[in-house]
Amino acid sequence: MNRDELMNRIHALSFAMTEAQLFLDTHPECRDALTYFREKRDELDNAMTEYQNKYGPLFADMTVGDKWSWVDGPWPWQSGGKED
Amino acid sequence: MWIYEKKLQYPVKIKNPNARLASLIIDALGGPDGELGAATRYLNQRFTMPKGKIIGTLTDIGNEELGHAEMVGSIIYQLTRNLTPEQIKAGGLDKYYIGHGAGVYPCAASGEPFSAMAISSKGDPLSDLNEDLAAEQKARVTYDNILRLSDDPDVNDVIRFLRQREIVHYQRFGEAMRSLTE
């Protein structure tokens, strides 16, 4: 997967987790939702690790290498536009 | 506490600047039914809620609203990139521009600065959750109004996502309120 494809996958999995989390807040005994949440969490962990190793940190403490790449762009709002 | 994740909840990629749309959509950030007010409302109301389910719902929805404030700020930023003075004047963004340039400032489309006067935190679960249900519907209507006035597909895709979230939050707040009588 290229950078955009991998980020799209992260967006999709994160969103699935957000939805499941809100549902679980009001349905904490729902085993199906809990299983779904954990499946998506594991898939997201793998996607995030791959992304951060290839393209830079999504969390400051995931910065690797001998340079503080957390401050490197693009920041999340710096996409789109005709120059891209 | 909070930890920043270096991504938006949903991608914002707007090709064409549009001063007029920016001057309207700013309402979804700093207006009375905007995302900044939503986050502030829920994250403050949660302290006095009587049940873990309700505290969790307010915490997680309030957290998501912070992400929505970031998304609306991203829309404003991208819509106001590289505008000419003529475009600023023609789009009616001149009054905003005088005070804020292309900076993202939380205010209503009318220019009224963001105010906590638009939110409530009463320390009473029925009062607060009823406000939250109404707040989600008011935010949904604001997005409906934006969709009526916007014909930019890049913008509308994001606005539709945000609109849909209001509906899901309304559902969860309804369940949280019913849990009061369980």
Largest sheet of chain A: none
User: Beta-strand level of the residues of chain B, as a percent range?
Assistant: under 5%
Unreliable runs of chain B, pLDDT <50, ≥5 residues? none
Structure classification of chain B: mainly alpha
Q: What count of structural domains of chain B? A: 1
- Let me know the number of strands of chain A: 0
The Rg value of chain A, from CA coordinates, equals 16 Å
Low-confidence runs of chain A: none
Assembly category: heterodimer
Shape of chain B: elongated
Order of helices and strands of chain B: HHHHHHHH
Number of separate helices of chain B: 8
Briefly, what CATH class of chain B? Mainly Alpha
The average pLDDT of chain A is 93
Q: Proportion of β residues of chain A?
A: under 5%
Rg of chain B (CA only): 17 Å
CATH A-level architecture of chain B:
Up-down Bundle
What is the string of helix and strand elements of chain A? HH
Number of helices of chain A: 2
Short description:
The complex is a heterodimer of chains A (84) and B (182). Chain A contains two helices and no strands. Chain A is mainly alpha-helical.
Feature tags:
A: 84 residues; mainly alpha; 2 helices; elongated; B: 182 residues; Ferritin; 8 helices
Could you explain how this protein is built, in words?
The complex is a heterodimer of chains A (84) and B (182). By secondary structure, chain A is mostly helical. Chain A contains two helices and no strands. Chain A has a domain of 25 residues. The model of chain A has no long low-confidence stretch (mean pLDDT 93). Chain B is mainly alpha-helical and 182 residues long. Chain B has a single domain, classed as Ferritin (Up-down Bundle). The mean pLDDT of chain B is 97. Chains A and B meet through α1 of A and α4 and α8 of B.
